[in-house]
Design brief:
heterodimer, A: 75% helix, B: alpha/beta, 6-stranded mixed beta sheet, 4-stranded antiparallel beta sheet, binds adenosine-5'-diphosphate, binds magnesium ion
């Protein structure tokens, strides 16, 4: 294929830092988690105890999947980090593919390349090659690293390849998604939605119990990772499923490439209104048009996520009343108090991290507007810089509360129906979710300050979320020092429902967020635009 | 006449790049002012400083009597801007963008809006992402030309337009002559000649010439090639004729624009069968007149030396 080699080299050069961060980060987290699990659960007895409790707990099943075999460190690692690690590999691949296909096309750079001697399919093929290689390298390094740590080679390769296979599938998903939509943002949303559905399908399937729809797990690429049973039978044949799906998706994407025009989507864009509605006449009106899709999408997604997590809560109560060992483990995941509340508190914590993704996306819309030269014409009208930034920040700020409340509502409704107290549970869980608002605002403030002070590094806000995710999810397990844990604003939120809510940390976080936001506004007024 | 724009000694650096290096510019109220310079000479940077988007490192700039950095919102009420690289929101239609920009500026002239859409043959119902570069430019042009403002700042507004649309654009600007002050940046000499009352020529972030077109006429030279009925005669001695090449009945030469008339009369004397003439490009003009003032090898971009 003409031009494939040079396009791949170009992509590798452009992304060398990004790729290094992903690969080193994911492999590093996986291996350090493995060695910590090895220390914490060094004796076979402690692992057996973990297996007896965690293996049958629907809360863990929904969040992390089943613990197939706790007799080895690898088995515990595969359970504790398998789904989340694979989720990140999938995200990486999907972002990489979009970045080198649709995003390039949208900016018109691909047109430049397309007019050079390059085969029609070469840009897509190059993106696939890059994402495929990145995920495979991660898988192999994980496999070799775990083997080096003394785990069984077969299990290590099963887990490593399972990680990689999720990357392959989402390389394919990204490739198709990039063909469907004309904008990179929508392409990423499509692929992200597929990833979210994959997570939820296996969550419901795993927690379904023997009579429930356990087959749902088999519909999800993340479920295939669990079914590979690394360190618990190593069923390598399951990996044929992701390989086959990858092949189908890539063929589909290349058929779509041949069918459509450069820059066009699959569905021809329809004509729209010739006149703007009354609402589109101010900075705020424009921000609403640009932000509403994102806000509605996140509100619905988090409502569904809350409902799925909430549906499991009752089972936790029934199964675990007499199981002190498990209580200890759940406490380690960041909670205290009654066992169901511990579970609910930890799911609300995860939901808060998801809402941080929303808030960064929403805030960085400012940066996209700037780099795409759409800020300039607006700022050349009487719209002040303050109003322009403020119109978007308003969405990030209020949107945080909206998406969190939606998640609390979803969890509260479903859990409330099951325990026969809809009103009470909705109030409790919406309240618990909203308690996290100040921490999410801190993330928004950080993103805004980065945008205003060092615009070229605005996307480092994403790294901030990953750091908070790792601190929150793995910090207690890795037994990190308290000061390190304290770096994350989420550490300071009371573990609600259950814990007493004290106003002080919430006020402090709100103040920090306000200070960062004010810094962002002030710095943006002083800097060059463009 | 008062000054709509007055800039002196403007300096703007981007890291090692000295984009503006002591630029001067004076635009009088009510005139169409050409802002001419090759790619990378600092036109867009100057305009961004005038719009308060960039902060100058040194020098002074005043716009409609105000300070472009401090009085932004107030000044922006009185001007409309068409960027060099028009980028639209993918999901908004052209019509929506025109209304939006118009409303942000405080309102549009509805009659002119409709009329301009028709003349530019622009379908306002298409989504931003489906417009070509030229059509995106038309969207921004309609929004700017239909605004009731004092000053239009147009950054290379015709770079994506075909010749037919360029003519429509020139017509539209001519209609506004006298009612609006226009700053029109361009790297095409012919376009500026067709529209502008006065011109400032910049190079490497510095103004090298400013004046009316008549003032600048001595700078320009036209290349002529003709096929004649008989052998050419009387050209060789004429003032302002350069690089004369005769091949049988064919003749090629360059002539200073202020001597064009005499040269053509000499051709007609021999009977003309075919004639092509080419206006000089900006690059040729620079090569001829400013070569020695420029650092060697710097044919594009305003790199610091
Ligand atoms: N944001 C920027 N960062 C770095 N360099 C820039 C930036 N904007 C313009 N330049 C540089 O400044 C010079 C002048 O650019 P510009 O004003 O866009 O020229 P023109 O509009 O006349 O083509 C060029 O060398 C360009 O590369
Ligand atoms: Mg320019």
């Amino acid at each position: 294929m003409t031009g494939l080699g040079s396009l791949v080299r170009l992509a590798l050069r452009r992304d060398r830092l990004l790729l290094a961060v992903w690969v080193v980060g994911l492999v590093g987290i996986t291996l350090s988690t493995a060695s910590t699990v090895g220390e914490l659960y060094g004796s076979p007895e402690s692992r057996q105890q973990l297996g007896a409790t965690a293996g049958s707990n629907p809360a863990f099943l929904a969040m992390l999947g089943p613990l197939h075999d706790a007799s080895t460190t690898g088995g515990v690692l595969a359970w504790r980090w398998g789904v989340f690690g694979a989720l990140l590999v999938g995200l990486m691949c999907m972002f990489l593919v979009t970045r080198h296909t649709r995003a390039e096309e949208e900016t018109g750079r691909l047109e430049l390349i397309g007019s050079a001697v390059v085969a029609r399919h070469a840009p897509l093929a190059a993106a696939v090659v890059v994402a495929l290689s990145a995920s495979t390298v991660i898988g192999l390094l994980v496999a070799l690293g775990l083997t080096g740590l003394g785990e069984s080679a077969s299990g290590s390769f099963a887990l490593g390849l399972a990680f990689a296979s999720v990357g392959w599938v989402f390389t394919g998903v990204g490739a198709v998604g990039a063909q469907l939509s004309e904008s990179a943002r929508t392409a990423n949303s499509i692929s992200g939605a597929v990833l979210g559905v994959a997570y939820l399908l296996r969550a419901v399937g795993d927690a379904a119990g023997d009579e429930g729809p356990t087959w749902l797990t088999w519909l999800s690429p993340l479920g295939w990772l669990e079914q590979t049973r690394a360190f618990a039978g190593d069923r390598f044949w399951v990996l044929l499923l992701p390989v086959a799906l990858f092949a189908v998706l890539v063929v589909a994407a290349s058929v779509l490439v041949a069918k459509r025009d450069l820059g066009g989507g699959l569905v021809p864009t329809r004509l729209g209104p010739a006149r703007a509605p009354r609402s589109l006449g101010s900075a705020f009106g424009l921000a609403w048009r640009l932000q509403r899709g994102m806000l509605i999408g996140w509100t619905l997604s988090l409502f569904v996520l809350g409902a799925v997590y909430g549906s499991v809560a009752r089972g936790v109560e029934q199964m675990l009343e007499a199981n002190p060992a498990l209580q200890k483990i759940i406490a380690q995941m960041g909670g205290a108090g009654a066992i169901v509340d511990v579970y609910l508190a930890s799911i609300v914590g995860i939901i808060a991290l998801f809402s941080a993704i929303y808030v960064v996306q929403s805030t960085l819309r400012l940066r996209t507007e700037e780099t795409e030269f759409r800020a300039e014409p607006v700022l050349a009208t009487p719209v002040s810089r303050f109003a322009w930034v403020g119109s978007h920040v308003l969405f990030a700020t209020v949107g945080t509360a909206v998406v969190l409340a939606a998640a609390g509502l979803g969890a509260g409704l479903v859990h409330g129906v099951r325990v026969g107290d809809v009103g009470g549970q909705v109030a409790r869980l919406v309240g618990a979710a909203l308690t996290h608002v100040p921490a999410v605002w801190v993330v928004a403030g950080l993103a805004l300050a980065l945008f205003a002070l060092v615009p070229k590094l605005a996307s480092a806000s994403w790294a901030v979320i990953v750091v908070f995710l790792v601190l929150g999810q793995l910090g207690p397990l890795l037994q990190l020092d308290q000061w390190a844990m304290d770096l994350s604003p989420f550490t300071h939120i009371p573990k609600v429902p259950g814990a007493d809510v004290t106003a002080a940390p919430l006020l402090w976080l709100t103040l920090v967020a306000a200070a960062l936001t004010a810094l962002g506004f002030a710095a943006f007024r002083r800097r060059d635009v463009g | 006449m008062t000054a709509a724009i007055s800039v002196s000694g403007l300096v703007k650096t981007f890291g090692p790049t000295r984009a503006l290096d002591g630029l001067d510019l004076a635009v009088r109220e009510g005139e169409v002012h050409g802002f001419l310079g090759p790619n990378g000479s600092g036109k867009s940077t100057t305009i961004r400083v005038l719009l308060g988007l960039l902060r100058a490192d040194a020098g002074s700039a005043s716009l409609l009597g105000g300070d472009p950095w401090r009085d932004t919102a107030e000044l922006h009420r009185r001007l409309a801007y068409v960027p060099g690289d028009v980028s639209l929101w993918p999901n908004l239609t052209g019509g929506e963008v025109i209304d939006l920009l118009g409303r942000l500026r405080g309102g549009l002239n509805e009659k002119r809006r409709a009329e301009l859409l028709e003349r530019f043959e622009l379908d306002p119902r298409k989504k931003g992402r489906t417009y070509s570069k030229g059509n995106r430019q038309k969207v921004a042009l309609v929004a700017a030309l239909a605004s009731d403002v004092e000053l239009l700042i147009l950054d290379e507004p015709t770079s994506g337009l075909d010749p037919l649309m360029e003519a429509v654009f020139q017509e539209a600007v001519n209609e506004l002559r006298g009612e609006r002050t226009v700053l029109l940046s361009s790297h095409i000499l012919a376009e500026v000649e067709a529209l502008c009352d006065r011109v400032s020529i910049i190079r490497n972030g510095r103004t090298v010439e400013t004046g009316t077109l008549a003032d600048l006429r001595h700078l320009t030279r036209t290349s002529v090639s003709a096929e004649l009925v008989g052998a050419p005669s009387g050209l060789a001695g004429l003032p302002g004729v350069h690089d004369l090449a005769v091949e049988g009945n064919r003749v090629r030469f360059e002539v200073d624009t202020d001597h064009l008339d005499t040269a053509l009369r000499a051709l007609v004397g021999s009977g003309v069968r075919a004639l092509t003439s080419q206006p000089p490009t900006l690059e040729e003009l620079f090569l001829r007149h400013y070569e020695d003032e420029l650092p060697a090898g710097a044919t594009e971009g305003a790199m610091s030396s």
